[in-house]
Amino acid sequence: MKRAFAAKTAAAAAAAWMGFAAGHAALAQSYPATVEAPTELERNNVRQWSRDNINEAPFTYEGFESDRTLYWMAAGGPGKRLWLRDEYFDPSKINGKLYRSSKALYEVDCAGKKWRSLSADLFAGNSMQGTPDHVDTPDAAWATPASGSNAEDVLLTACKAP
What domains sit in the chain, N to C, each tagged with a CATH number? Predict the structure, then answer.
C-alpha cells in the first residue's frame, strides 16, 4: 500500500514539475506584437493559431468569434469577478484608435446570469503588448450574454468556480 502511494506521489510530483516547466517555457517564449489573422475560421485551425501566435498565459482559452479569440480567468476582489480577454484577428477600432488586444474586468451576478464591465485595458499589440490605454467603466449597465455564446460559457464557468 505504501509503495503504491509513493509511486502515485512521485508520479504526481513529476507531472506537476513538467506542468511548471512547460508553463515557464511558454512565458519565456517571445510572441510577435502583430499577428496575421488565421487563414480559416475553423475550430481546430483557430485553436492552433492561438497556441502558435498568442501568449495565452495566465488566461484560459475559451473560443473564437468572427473577429477574435476569447480568453478568461478569475479575478480577486469583492464579489465574483473575472477578466475577459480578446485577441483581435485584425486591428479593432475602439474610441477612434486601433487595438489588437484587450482585457476587461467584469463584475458577475451569477444568480441573474449577467455581468458588467468595471474597467478595460486596450493594447496596440497582440498578447497584451505595448502600453495599455486604460478605461474605467464603473457605471456600466448590467448585460446578459447571448444564449449559447462564448461569453455566456465564460460567465457560467466562472460562476461554477470557487
Answer: 43-160 (2.40.128.710)
Give kind and range of the element (H or E) at residue 91. Answer: strand 80-94
> Which residue in the block uniquely carries the three cell numbers 502511494?
5
- How is the beta sheet containing 114-123 ordered, strand by strand? 60-65, 68-75, 80-94, 97-109, 114-123, 133-136
pLDDT tens by residue, 58-98 = 999 999 999 999 999 999 877 899 999 999 999 999 889 99
Buried b (16+ CB within 10 A) or exposed e, 30-57: ebeeebeebeeeeeeebeebbeebbbbe
Distance between CA 105 and CA 17 in Å, rounded? 31
Per-residue pLDDT reduced to its tens digit, 49-58? 999 999 999 9
What is the C-alpha to C-alpha distance for residues 120 and 103, in angstroms, rounded to an integer? 6
